[in-house]
Design a protein that fits this description.
349 residues, alpha/beta, 2 domains, 7-stranded mixed sheet, D-Maltodextrin-Binding Protein, domain 2, 46% helix, single chain
């Protein structure tokens, strides 16, 4: 009887000890989870493809949207800080240096700075009613419209002539089926974007090279604008004759054209496409390789967060500032065409 009692007591004690260890381990794990520090500030930078104040205002809701979605992915962030770089290069350099964590940047900017930036998402946007390489097709089928039932992972750059006398002269020649000459385009005043802008500089340079064996640096009259808003302001004021833009940029400036820029006729009546670039792979959400905040867990959480945000009405409104409609996980190799373009441009210098 005593032996049985001793055995039973031993089993009870062993059970208590095992249970106690298990509970203690679980408590330790719970404590570790509760003790994990939240990210204090997540810095998100945008390129100035629109008026910087307009971007800051439109993206304000993204702060809370990101915090909420990241929390759903198990990543706590105390504050999301949003800023607009002074240039495309400024955002690329911030990603490379680690002074910003996330950048919404074009493919051209990404490949220029991919030593310090890593692409995690590619933007999708509504396909357009026009995707022709022939500028006349764009001019005969205005306005350009988005297709609600079709998403695209690439876009085109356009060379667009404005309402100035020279702009109308070149547009008339194109619409009559005549080929432009180097003398035609070189006699015009151009507004271009910074050198890392895909639709505003890189691909227009490739177009000039293919057509005339020249580049933007060979133009006698070209100015770099501070974003596309500034570009359209110059075009409307007839300070320039040709602008380099992304394919749906005119759609984004319909109201500005007759509002802020004080033109009487619509942007579709007063502008014409004179050149179309080859396809350009869409914008990226890229992260810094050198940010002290960034890690694999955060990268995965950001991917899911942006994808989920783009599915909500509020999120769609925020990302529409860049004509983004959704996101898909990115592959760096998809931007090899952009890398080839960059190599070509470097060889021109």
């Amino acid at each position: 009887m005593k032996q049985r009692l001793l055995v039973l007591l031993g089993l009870v004690l062993m059970s208590i000890l095992i249970g106690g260890c298990s509970d203690s381990e679980q408590d330790a794990e719970d404590a570790a989870d509760k003790g994990s520090e939240a990210i204090d500030i997540l810095k998100v930078s945008f390129v100035p493809s629109r008026d910087p104040d307009e971007i800051v205002t439109a993206t304000e809701p993204l702060k809370n949207l990101l915090k909420e979605e990241l929390a759903n992915q198990g990543v706590e962030v105390n504050n999301v800080e949003i800023n607009v770089g002074t240039t495309y290069e400024a955002v690329g350099e911030a990603l490379s240096s680690g002074t910003t964590d996330v950048g919404l940047i074009p493919g051209g900017t990404y490949v220029l700075y991919d030593d310090g930036a890593e692409v995690i998402l590619t933007a999708t946007r509504a396909a357009l009613s026009n995707d022709s390489e022939n500028p006349v097709d764009w001019n005969e089928n205005k306005p350009t419209e988005g297709l609600e039932d079709e998403q695209a992972t690439y876009y085109r750059g356009l060379m667009v002539a404005g309402p100035s006398e020279k702009g109308q002269e070149l547009a008339e020649k194109v619409n009559n089926g005549e080929e432009l000459t180097w003398e035609d385009v070189n006699s015009a005043r151009w507004s271009v974007q910074s050198t890392s802008s895909s639709s505003g500089y890189i691909y227009p340079t490739l177009w000039l090279q293919e057509k005339f064996g020249k580049s933007i640096t060979d133009l006698d009259q070209s100015v770099q604008s501070n974003g596309y808003g500034d570009t359209f302001a110059k075009l409307a004021a007839e300070q320039v004759d040709i602008v380099t833009i992304y394919a749906d940029a005119r759609r984004d400036n319909v109201e500005n054209w007759t509002g802020d820029f004080a033109r009487e006729a619509s942007i579709w009546d007063e502008t014409n496409v004179i050149g179309v670039t080859q396809p350009i792979y869409n914008d990226t959400v890229s992260v810094s390789k050198n940010s002290k905040t960034m890690n694999d867990e955060l990268k995965k959480a950001l991917q899911e967060a942006f994808i989920n945000i783009a599915k909500t009405e509020e999120g769609k409104e925020v990302i529409s500032i860049y004509s983004h409609e959704g996101y898909q996980k990115a592959e760096s190799a998809k931007y090899d065409g952009e890398r080839d373009a960059q190599d070509f441009l470097r060889n021109l210098k």
